[in-house]
Amino acid sequence: MKRRHVLASLAASGLAASLAFATGAVAQAPAPLNPPVTLTVGYQKVGHLAPITLIEDELKKGGVDLKLVEFARYADARTALLSGSLDAASVGPADLAIALANGATGIVGIMGVGSSPKYVIGKTGTKLDSWDDLKGKKVGIAPGSAVWFQFAAALTERGIPYSSFNAVNIQGAGTNFNQALQRGDVDAIVTWEPFESIPVIQGYGFFAKNLDYSRSQAVGAELGMFVATKAAATDKKEALQRFVTAYVGRMKALSASPPDFAAAMAKLTGLEPSLAAKVSEVIQLGPVITPEQIKRQAKAFNELGVIQKDVSGEIDKYWAPEFVQRATGG
User: 205 pairs with which residues across the strands?
Assistant: First the structure.
């Protein structure tokens, strides 16, 4: 997705911070915290979180000891965050609404991390020219995942019954999806980078570009976001601010240098450099999520019956834009 398309899709409340990121505005570095503060952050080994591999030394100089905890899924990171074992975590675009609908009000949204087109990945030789071609196909999905929410929203908006294809639930890492596709256990998969690009590059899959489920009005092209506990946003506010400032700075730097983005992605995910370079062409880094987008998600998923309570009217109370605003000088 081109930068101009990302910026054009932003709602008014998030525009200032996003424009500041795009134009390179940065905040002046504050004095180091004394004594140092430990900040525990959950993350996943996915390409769009590549900046997280580059900020530890910068944070240490600022008096923040960053402790990273790896999770395989957004949902697992959300659970750990709600239990109080993390100060912040990267989670799915819908996870703030999910938490609020379940009565968990001790968290606040901080910022998005990136966006990309999201195509159904078909097995080579499978006909997937239109959404109608999904009928009767075996489609590998990760139930309850961020990409599942995107996919389900796109189907609903197009009036496509979920029962029109055979949903095959696949658990665990993205490699499990690729193995299922390569073996022929499924005709298509709905997954995330870098596992979307791997089948295409290795020749056993293809991007079904007419089946782009990032175009849903309810969800959009967001890849995830950072959420913090209210306790961390209050008691460790300056440490969290330094984390956001460092992260936004690295997002900007990697956006401006595709080779550096690919190298950071390879470091985080373990991908071969050539594969990381291909994946880096797909992802647009940036704090692109807005409260308005999350409200649309909350309302849509309540209507779908996925979230039992409509919390769209509560999102503003649980969104903390000041961290990105300070990080970008906006």
Answer: 123
